[in-house]
Design goal:
alpha/beta, Enolase-like, domain 1, 14 strands, seven-stranded parallel beta sheet, 13 helices, 39% helix, three-stranded antiparallel beta sheet, 2 domains, binds magnesium ion, TIM Barrel, binds (2R,3R,4R)-N,2,3,4,5-pentakis(oxidanyl)pentanamide
Length: 369
């Protein structure tokens, strides 16, 4: 099989309720810069990265897919996973302008599209190609009622509704300007969902070390499962200090871009829950290495949901470090086989591929010029 064409386009999909906020982002649409890769055997693969829907930079990602990586892919055998990833990643003029960021996100989209082709060529869902077991159940936790801009009342009633729908866990955002407000929200949600359900807390990189230390100690009172992105994303030493001072497990990884970044955080004991995201760390090929690294240290991998659980569900079924995955339903109207949750568990994807094929109607509806 040979690659015959590489194209790209951008979808912008509105988020729940018009807009959402966490401590560092305000988002009204999820950006989906997509790679479409065609082969001489008639198999077409789709892959994408996830953004905050900023059109000028989404266009740069799309252009990088088509104009920078496209010519390197034409004529290649899409089955050569490692060789192709290395060819693209080690293309020195491209790497020179970004080992993370735009070129890296573009590579994620390309690599995921190539894995979609591999699974389609095998006539199997990706989890099966990667050796997964259909009986493995992946628990979903829901973040979509935990946003920082929601009133206390809406936050509490939303989280309560989620557990009534069968979710065993919810995640709420912290990082308000007043940490008393954060504490009150954590306490109210714990009270509302009861002691049996899981509660996770995400600061999206907002706190300084003294505030994170204070908050981390306080979160133990509410049986919080993990404290996510407490500090600035790349502050390895800060996370080391925090991890040694609080009991609360630290989750992070949605803004780490390379295997080496993860290796450093893991080696220093600065992360306990590894939130690798294949749409941000140059695709599935690199994600698998990060998951193996975590597994070797007996750390759980709970992927960040930059793909809205389309690709990561396959990876979670296949990888022994995974049993839980975040769910945010923003892309539920985009794909032929959207991620679905029933009684708090993900339904297992059945169609051949990586579940990244968008419907024609979604392309018509969400594509931006
Ligand atoms: C908005 N999940 C997250 C949203 C979410 C972010 O940036 O994407 O809050 O991805 O932190 O864990
Ligand atoms: Mg997060």
């Amino acid at each position: 099989m040979r690659i015959t064409a590489v194209d790209s386009f951008v979808l912008h999909v509105p988020v729940t309720g018009g807009h959402i906020e966490d401590s560092s982002h305000k988002v009204d649409r999820w950006g989906v810069p997509m790679a479409r890769i065609e082969t001489d055997e008639g198999i077409t693969g789709f892959g994408y990265t996830g953004t905050h829907g900023h059109l000028p930079t989404d266009r740069l990602i799309a252009e990088c897919i088509k104009e920078a990586y496209g010519p390197l892919l034409i004529g290649e055998d899409p089955m050569s996973a490692e060789a192709l990833w290395n060819k693209l990643y080690n293309c020195s003029p491209i790497r020179w302008v970004g080992r993370s960021g735009i070129t890296h996100l573009a590579l994620s989209a390309v690599d995921i599209a190539l894995w979609d082709i591999r699974a389609k060529a095998a006539g199997a869902p990706l989890w099966k190609l990667l050796g997964g077991d259909e009986e493995k159940r992946i628990e979903a936790y829901n973040t979509d009622w935990g946003w920082l801009h929601l009133s206390l009342e809406t936050l509490v009633s939303g989280c309560k509704r989620l557990v009534e729908e069968g979710y065993n866990g919810v995640k709420i955002k912290v990082g308000s300007s007043d940490i008393q407000v954060d504490s009150k929200r954590v306490a109210a949600v714990r009270h509302a969902i009861g002691s049996e359900r899981k509660l996770m807390v995400d600061a999206n990189g907002k706190f300084d070390l003294p505030t994170a230390l204070h908050m981390g100690k306080h979160l133990s009172d509410y049986d919080v499962v993990w404290f996510e992105e407490p500090l600035w994303f790349e502050d390895l030493l800060g996370h080391v200090r925090l991890a040694s001072a609080i009991d609360m497990p630290i989750a992070l990884g949605e803004q780490l871009y390379t295997l080496c970044d993860f290796a450093n955080f893991v080696a220093m004991g600065a992360v306990h829950i590894v939130q690798a995201d294949a749409t941000r760390l140059a695709g599935i090929t690199e994600w698998l290495k990060v998951a193996d690294l975590a597994y070797a240290h007996r750390l759980p991998v709970v992927p960040h949901v930059g793909d809205m659980a389309q690709v990561h569900l396959h990876l979670c079924i296949a990888h022994p470090a995974c049993d839980t995955l975040e769910y945010i339903p923003w892309l539920k109207e985009v794909f032929e086989e959207p991620a679905r949750v029933r009684n708090g568990r993900f339904c297992v994807h059945q169609m051949p591929g990586a579940s990244t094929t968008p419907t024609e109607s979604a392309i018509a509806r969400f594509r931006v010029a």
